[in-house]
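Re: that chain you flagged

S.,

Sorry for the slow reply, it's been a week of failed gels. I finally had a moment to sit down with the sequence you sent. For the record, here it is as I used it:
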Amino acid sequence: MNSTKSYIRSHIHKQNKIQLDEKLYTKFRFYLDNKSDQTFNGVMADSTDKQYLQSLIQNMIKSPQMKGNITDNKIQDDSYFCRNRNQSTFKIFRYFIQSLVYYFLPFLLAKKKIDFIFLVHIRYEEDCNTHAPYISFLKKLLPTKTYLYLFSLLPPLLLDEFTHANGSKGLLISSTHLPQPLINGKKTRTKEINRSLKFISNACVPQHEKIVISLGAWWPIISLHGQLFEKVLPNDHPYIITTGHTATLYSIVKTAEDLIEKSLLPREQINIAIMGCGNIGFFAANTLLSKGVQVTLIDINEIKLLKLKKQLQESFPDSLIHHHTFSHESVQPILNTCHFGICATSNTKEIIKKEDIPDFFVFIDDSRPEAIPRFDYGDNKYTLEGGLINVQGFQSSFNFGFGNDSNLLGCLSEGYILALDQQLNKTLSPTKSVASVDLYNSMARFCESQNIRPGDYKMGELTLQETTIIQAVRCRHELINR
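Prediction finished late last night. Pasting the structure tokens below so you have them in one place:
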């Protein structure tokens, strides 16, 4: 195995000609802040390497390539977890050209035989560079608003092809609109739904009976849980539309149950913060209260908050259910009373500052874009990528912000799971509006039968040890009861 220094030198040029991107910089920061039992690229940290890396970091900070992008300890925009494509330049270019041809001249290309589609949209201006790097030079020539408008004129873009060892195939397709115009503009929303379906119809044909379209990011909200897609499709359409919320819930609830069970704390003393009182927040609270714990409900909408609390109290009259209206001033004292938290909010940026999160607090963050900050090793605060499902044998070259491995977003994995079920027993139903107990239980049984489990403890691309997370929950208990 190469030494740590050799590994680092393979990413840079001689002396001050540094060509390190922000992603690699973040990895170096994790390494510098590591505890003694952690490794970087499989190599144990030692003081010499740390000194070398610290010197390298300082040079990077001063280099013109990184100017304005980083500070001494952090990437400036912590809310943006960089998507990237582990694809060759030729492959990225091929997908871009295929996207244009499929949309405008579909008769020139054969349709792809697939089982499922993961439909997303750009989240930030930076995603434009990832999705269509060949026109990113316009960003330097045009005002941001003009650049984003021109980018939105592009058709939906093919970003990746998914495969699985069992023969299942899927596509990653992205709208070229930011979420805000889709949410606020009825005409824009309807037009983009029609454009997406046109692209899918031009480019895809079912490998088996039907194609599952799983809606990612804000698409479930934008499309009224898929209803707007169903509305414009003919009755005999070859698609199954799902929001992906059931697989997401399965992951969140199982992860929370894991923390409860393995912490070995008295259940009646465990207090779990649940931010966001929508469908996922309600279902998570309902399931966790049945385990005998306390919950603290937090939402910006007081009417919705009180309604949810009333519903839960009717089902669990003897349980402790706290509630608080969210504000930036009150969030820290609220979290100080909780052992860990689940974030299931709808947002377009971070909603909590790093300093407002208590020491040893573990957040399970399902929001995309991310609502909760991510941390370095040394911060003793942990934000887990919520809703991940571990599907062994799944292949993708697109990094959603937590690496390329068998951990998938819940909404993506539900597309794969429903497609697989179509080939087997056809026992599962798509998530049309809200997840239900029946959908959840069916999903749980199917996942267990297929060796599909909740995802690893991921914080960005960093895989955290289970012992680290469990110990953090125990430390929170000690701090709360001190």
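What I noticed first: The longest strand covers residues 157-164.

Talk soon,
D.
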